[in-house]
Design goal:
This protein is mainly alpha-helical. It is built from seven helices and two strands. The N and C termini lie far apart (74 Å).
Length: 238
């Protein structure tokens, strides 16, 4: 059994290879695009609301609340990016119930691409929030000698995001393969349920960590938080 979708070549044409990672990634994207179009095509503000719209509102509200809990004052600003990360990873993992499907998150190339998106989003959100100069000065805190260490921390944090998601998805696939080889008639249902739960948890963890990194950098630059606000004087408000 090929547990790594990179090694599963679906199409080989004149030296061009389409492996399972690429095919299933585009498949997940197509599912999300079609589902979002079908659900949002008939949105209603009245009392007659479809179940799909209710489900969509629950998901969007839940993601927005989680972003707000991180400490951001404008969760709507980060909702499209964080919501896309969560929905893509969750959908990619949930579709494992389809026979023959391999989650693209089981490929290090996919998880690395997602982590690089977070790496790019962190300075972009931070610069728009506090300005380029303030963001760059964050790398010099608390001392200019910390510049290489802060840059290294940014890189290692990105690697950790990619490896964490890849390792968790791959470990679940390996365990499922071992159990299916031992008792193919009993474990499949249990492993499918466990895989769905694990996939949703991994999507949640990745999205929350991405939001934590963005919020931390947006507030006061990388690896630095704001000083506590001064207490109001006694004369204020009198």
């Amino acid at each position: 059994m090929d547990i790594n979708p990179d090694t599963w070549i679906l199409l080989d044409w004149n030296g061009w290879h389409i492996n399972a990672t690429i095919a299933f990634t585009w498949g997940v994207m197509a599912v999300l695009v079609v589902a979002s179009w079908l659900i949002t095509a008939r949105l209603s503000d009245g009392e007659n609301v479809s179940r799909w719209q209710v489900m969509l509102e629950v998901i969007v509200t839940g993601i927005r609340d989680q972003i707000a809990e991180v400490g951001t004052e404008t969760p709507g600003r980060y909702l499209p990016f964080i919501g896309t990360l969560f929905l893509f990873i969750a959908t990619a993992n949930i579709l494992t119930i389809i026979p023959g499907y391999r989650p693209p998150t089981g490929s290090l190339s996919t998880t690395s691409a997602l982590a690089i998106c977070v790496l790019i989003a962190v300075p972009l959100f931070s610069i728009t929030q506090q300005g380029l100069g303030s963001y760059l000065r964050g790398y010099l805190r608390p001392s200019p000698f910390m510049l290489p260490f802060n840059i290294l921390a940014e890189a290692t944090r990105t690697i950790a995001l990619a490896v964490r998601l890849y390792g968790n998805v791959m470990s679940g696939t390996v365990i499922a393969g071992i159990l299916l080889s031992i008792a193919p008639f009993f474990f499949p249902v249990l492993m499918q349920l466990l895989g769905l739960l694990t996939g949703l948890i991994q999507a949640y963890i990745f999205a929350v960590l991405a939001m934590v990194y963005i919020a931390s950098a947006s507030r006061a630059g990388p690896h630095h938080t704001h000083d506590p606000a001064p207490e109001p004087s006694r004369n204020e408000g009198e």
